[in-house]
């Protein structure tokens, strides 16, 4: 499926685009509604932020699960080893004939005999206590008292050499005698190992997140390139009749593009009908106006003056609307304005029309302007003709490139315009010099054309003494991008 804007003999494809943009982006749309021009965050930025937030949350959960899982496995392994040592101690525990309890040291693991080895036990049988040599005389009664019978707990170590223990307390009956057995292991090295492992996981994870961030940024940039391609395709609608192939874009964008195409075509047809109706109306008014003027001529001079003045105003309005209706707006295929050929041909005509005026200038831009050729000819012709009309002898013009715009400057050595009167130059029907023939619509029409293309029009006093007019219009999109790249 493809779409392109509707075209006709004089108005076209992108008239509808211009109207559509103006309708949707105007400060007041519809009844009592307005669209504030607020800076919205980038969609790519929001997606990037949400994805990174998701990755951070997922990685945080992974680290937390890894920490608790590793700790559970390590603690479970330590408890299993402590219970094994407990069983070994119970096997090594024997009662002498005099009813005293002793441990067979040959059966007790040697690590319990080395001072502060990190492995400890204590047996209480009645009033008798059997303590591992590794305790080396430490008072650990307070430590043992914090461990309920039948449980294993992490407790603070009673010496400054170790941080905490994992200790178990069991109440066991042997040979009809109840005994309490506490057995413990220094948990500090294991905890330090877990911390080291977690920190390594964090560092590796941060590196992985950076790689994922870079991959994500690349993927988003790659996928969002479709919007750049779409933007260029829409820009090309202003300059050629190439249709947009909706099927070439992701299916999520296809409904939007289809609706956009229908809207552009519908608005184009509406605008064309309105412009034709306006042109027809203005044209049909000419005949009754001519008839009225003939009737006025038959009246007395005193009676005809106010009627003649009113009729002149009507004629001015008709001429104004006809000129407005002829402004095409953004161009259609084959109607782009090409410099410097267009302006050179205009200058040749003006030199013949004003043989007593020295019209000189230069064009340093060999580019295509994003404007209809007839509109631009109307604009340049009005500016140059106006300068020739009011100049004493010299008219100087120049066409240059300024960034993404092409600018035309026209100045003359005529009487000029007072600074306070400059804002009135583009008012419809206003003529500051009443001695000259015209309806006062030349510069007003220039303003309308410049505004239609999103350009700028500026007036100031010329260095030659007269008026200087500067117009800047956007270049074609491709040439504008090239000019920026070459800077």
Summarize the structure.
With 487 residues, the chain is an alpha+beta fold. Helix content is 49%, strand content 19%. The strands form five sheets. The chain has a five-stranded antiparallel beta sheet with strand order 5-4-8-7-6. Strands 11-13-14-16-15 form a five-stranded mixed beta sheet, covered by helices on one side. A two-stranded antiparallel ribbon has the order 1-9.
CATH architecture of the domain at 335-485: 2-Layer Sandwich
CATH superfamily grouping of the domain at 335-485: Histidine kinase-like ATPase, C-terminal domain
State the end-to-end distance. Answer: 39 Å
Distinct helical segment count? 10
CATH topology category name of the domain at 335-485: Heat Shock Protein 90
Helices and strands in order, then pairings?
Blueprint: E1 2-3, H1 13-25, H2 43-92, E2 93-95, E3 101-103, E4 119-125, E5 128-131, H3 141-145, E6 151-156, E7 164-174, E8 177-186, H4 188-236, E9 244-245, H5 254-297, H6 301-326, E10 336-338, H7 341-353, E11 358-363, E12 368-372, H8 373-390, E13 394-402, E14 405-412, H9 442-452, E15 456-461, E16 467-474, H10 477-485
Parallel strand pairs: 11-13
Antiparallel strand pairs: 1-9, 2-3, 4-5, 4-8, 6-7, 7-8, 10-12, 13-14, 14-16, 15-16
Helix pairs in contact: 1-5, 2-4, 5-6, 7-8, 8-9
Give a description of the structure:
With 487 residues, the protein is an alpha+beta fold. Among the domains are: 93-185, no CATH class; 335-485, Histidine kinase-like ATPase, C-terminal domain (Heat Shock Protein 90), CATH 3.30.565. Helix content is 49%, strand content 19%. It has 10 helices and 16 strands. It has helices at residues 13-25, 43-92, 141-145, 188-236, 254-297, 301-326, 341-353, 373-390, 442-452, 477-485; strands spanning 2-3, 93-95, 101-103, 119-125, 128-131, 151-156, 164-174, 177-186, 244-245, 336-338, 358-363, 368-372, 394-402, 405-412, 456-461, 467-474. The strands form 5 sheets. The protein has a 5-stranded antiparallel sheet with strand order 5-4-8-7-6. A hairpin with a 7-residue loop joins β6 and β7 (164-174). α1 (13-25) crosses α5 and α5 (254-297) runs antiparallel to α6 (301-326). It is rod-shaped. It starts with a strand and ends with a helix. Residues 5-37, 434-440 and 480-487 have low confidence and may be disordered.
């Amino acid at each position: 499926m493809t779409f392109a804007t509707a075209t006709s003999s004089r108005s076209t494809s992108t008239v509808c685009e211009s109207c559509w943009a103006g309708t949707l982006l105007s400060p007041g749309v519809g009844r009592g509604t307005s669209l504030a021009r607020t800076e919205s965050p980038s969609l790519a930025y929001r997606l990037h932020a949400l994805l990174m937030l998701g990755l951070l949350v997922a990685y945080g959960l992974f680290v937390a699960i890894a920490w608790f899982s590793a700790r559970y496995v390590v603690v479970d392994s330590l408890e299993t080893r402590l219970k094994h040592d407990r069983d070994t101690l119970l096997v090594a525990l024997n009662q002498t004939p005099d009813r005293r309890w002793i441990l067979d040291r040959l059966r007790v693991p040697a690590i319990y005999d080395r001072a502060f080895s990190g492995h400890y036990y204590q047996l209480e049988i009645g009033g008798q206590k059997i303590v591992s040599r590794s305790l080396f005389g430490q008072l650990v009664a307070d430590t043992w008292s914090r461990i309920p019978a039948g449980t294993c707990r992490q407790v603070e170590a009673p010496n400054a050499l170790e941080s905490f223990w994992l200790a178990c307390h069991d109440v066991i009956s042997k040979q009809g005698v109840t005994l309490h057995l506490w057995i413990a292991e220094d948990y500090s090295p294991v905890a330090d190992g877990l911390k080291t492992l977690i920190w390594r996981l964090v560092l590796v994870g941060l590196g992985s997140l950076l790689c994922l961030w870079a991959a994500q940024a690349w993927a988003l940039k790659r996928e969002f390139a479709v919007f750049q391609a779409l933007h260029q395709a829409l820009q090309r609608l202003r300059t050629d009749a190439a249709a947009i192939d909706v099927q070439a874009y992701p299916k999520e964008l296809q409904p939007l593009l289809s609706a956009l195409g229908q809207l552009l075509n519908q608005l184009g047809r509406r605008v064309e009908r309105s412009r034709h109706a306006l042109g027809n109306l203005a044209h049909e008014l000419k005949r009754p106006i001519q008839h009225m003027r003939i009737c006025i001529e038959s009246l007395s001079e005193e009676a005809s003056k106010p009627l003649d003045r009113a009729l002149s105003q009507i004629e001015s309005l008709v001429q104004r609307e006809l000129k407005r209706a002829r402004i095409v707006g953004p161009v259609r295929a084959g109607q782009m304005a090409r410099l410097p050929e267009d302006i050179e041909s205009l200058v040749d005509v003006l030199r013949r029309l004003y043989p007593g005026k020295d019209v000189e200038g230069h064009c340093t831009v060999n580019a295509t302007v994003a404007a209809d050729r007839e509109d631009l000819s109307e604009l340049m012709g009005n500016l140059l003709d106006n300068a020739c009309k009011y100049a004493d002898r010299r008219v100087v013009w120049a066409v240059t490139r300024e960034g993404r715009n092409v600018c035309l400057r026209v100045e003359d050595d005529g009487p000029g315009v007072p600074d306070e009167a400059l804002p009135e130059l583009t008012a419809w029907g206003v003529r500051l010099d009443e001695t000259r023939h015209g309806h006062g619509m030349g510069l007003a029409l220039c303003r309308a054309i410049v505004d239609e293309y999103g350009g700028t029009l500026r007036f100031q006093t010329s260095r030659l003494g007269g008026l200087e007019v500067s117009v800047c219009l956007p270049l074609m999109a491709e040439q504008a991008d090239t000019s920026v790249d070459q800077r």
